[in-house]
Amino acid sequence: MAKAYQRTYTRLQAITKATVSLEANGVSNDELATVNGKLAQVVKTKGDLVTLQVFSGTEGVPTNAEVSFQGAPPTLKVSDQLSGRFFNAYGKPIDGGPEVEGEEREVGGPSVNPYKRRQPSELIPTGIAGIDLNNTLVSGQKIPFFADPDQPYNKVMADVALRADVDKIILGGMGLSNDDYLFFRHEFESAGALDKIVSFVNTTEEPPVERLLIPDMALAAAEYFAVDKNEKVLVLLTDMTLYADALCIVSNRMDQIPSKDSMPGSLYSDLAKIYEKAVQLPDGGSITIIAVTTLNDGDITHAIPDNTGYITEGQLFLRADSDSGKVIVDPFRSLSRLKQLVQGKKTREDHSQVMNASVRLYADAQNAKTKLENGFDLSDYDLRCLDYAKEYATRLLSIDVNITIEQMLDTAWEIFAKYFSPTETGIKQVLIDKYWKN
Per the count of CB atoms within 10 A, which of 5, 16, 80, 219 is most buried? Predict the structure, then answer.
């Protein structure tokens, strides 16, 4: 039975595969409703004409279906009881546990007032040298993982979750296979880390448009722990390409004219609404966002990664390394635009110099490889660079390396001394004198 504050209508004007339209008064964008008992959300209003997306599809919905508006957008009950739990796109438990008791809050609201933000300055170590050494993460940062669909990006996300020095991890899984969902759950449980992790999951067996709720749910939970509890929160979102595909489904079924690569014209705003929730707060709480964006045939110019790059503060790029046989964080195509805020300030004094020398020597190795492929003779320096590159990729760039930043720096010095003279590294003499491994 409809509640007293609900408005109920029984005459639909149009039905598509995912949406229904009708005339209704006093309806707001993002408001929830039920259409013939199915959960729906307002996605467009034009005068009194309202369009709703029906999450589970409109199959079986008649033109005289009962539409009841609930008077509010989606909400999530927040409290410490969220910790260690798995929820669906509507914030309902899927782990067999009880409903969460707590304050009910709207999801998908505006980002933090810029006046209340402060410059990010806290280091977030992950144990992955391709990140910590070369592209150091800073609390309050927003940064994507760009990866091909066959890369083990979900494993990397799980590793980051378990290694990162933060108070809470919020996982938002969109379009996960059941195997991926069970993988995350098993990894978190076996590591004994469930008490600091909250997960919102949409699987491939569930309607794609439900994915659109996952980031909002995850970020509503993140804001509770960051703002109310002053905790350092890391939000992991995977996969934003599937999120954008769901936006595309709704857009197409509303007969909107597509933009670049068949994406909706609102793509930039839709992505920015999510990523701009990243924040460093004055009282110490923070929300840091790492989001996977899978690439189509490695195409970084596609509308999804292209728009993402304008919003975020760099990117982490996964690729298979043919020399070492490892999956690495590519030092050339990865970039953290905020790393200078912590390198040498919250890490050891030699960090920036070691990072620069490591990548420059790796670039020299790639030049030597090009010379070899084109039949040119290699110098002694070229041969040493090639040997260095293989060891550097294996011991530092590989995603399965798990060591502290000081150990990363020590390892880099060790590899330098093995293949090069101090002069060839280009590192300042004062640091050579202090850290060179004889």
Answer: 219
Distance CA 85, CA 88 (A): 10
Which tens digit of pLDDT belongs to each residue from 354-406?
999 999 999 999 999 999 999 899 999 999 999 999 999 999 999 988 899 99
The CATH 2.40.30.20 domain(s) of the chain lie at 7-69
The residue among 53, 56, 50 whose CA lies nearest residue 9 is 50
Please give the Cα distance from 309 to 384 (Å, whole number): 35
Query: CB neighbours of 290 closer than 8 A, spacing ≥ 6?
Result: 137, 143, 144, 145, 157, 160, 234, 235, 236, 237, 316
Residue 4 confidence (pLDDT) above 50: no
Burial (CB < 10 A; 0-12, 13-18, 19+), residue 215, is buried
CATH of domain 7-69: 2.40.30.20
Output the pLDDT for position 268: 93
- Scan for tokens 């046989």, then name that residue: 325
Pairing of strands 286-294, 142-147: parallel
Q: Which CATH architecture has domain 75-340?
A: 3-Layer(aba) Sandwich (3.40)
Neighbours of 304 (CB within 10 A): 29
Q: Coil, helix or strand for 311?
A: helix
Q: Is 43 helix (H, G, I), strand (E, B) or coil?
A: strand
264-315 pLDDT tens trace = 888 999 999 999 999 999 888 999 999 999 998 888 899 999 999 999 999 9
Task: Report CA torsion sign: 292, 287, 249, 179.
Answer: positive
Q: Token digits for 222?
A: 């993140």
Kindly indicate the confidence band of residue 16, based on its pLDDT and cuts at 50, 70 and 90.
confident
The burial of 325, by beta-carbon neighbours within 10 Å (0-12 exposed, 13-18 middle, 19 or more buried), is given as exposed
pLDDT at 28 over 90: no
Inter-residue contact 341 to 119 (CB < 8 Å):
yes
For residues 118-136, give the mean pLDDT: 90
Q: Count the alpha carbons within 13 Å of 170 in the hemisphere toward its beta carbon.
A: 28
Residue 390: closest CA among 423, 368, 421: 368
CA 334 to chain centre: 15
Q: Where in the chain is the domain with CATH 3.40.50.12240?
A: 75-340
Listing DSSP states for 63-83 in one string gives TT--EEE-SS--EEEESGGGT
pLDDT of residue 6: 64
Across 408-428, average pLDDT: 96
| Residue 57 and residue 27 in contact, taking contact as beta carbons nearer than 8 Å | no
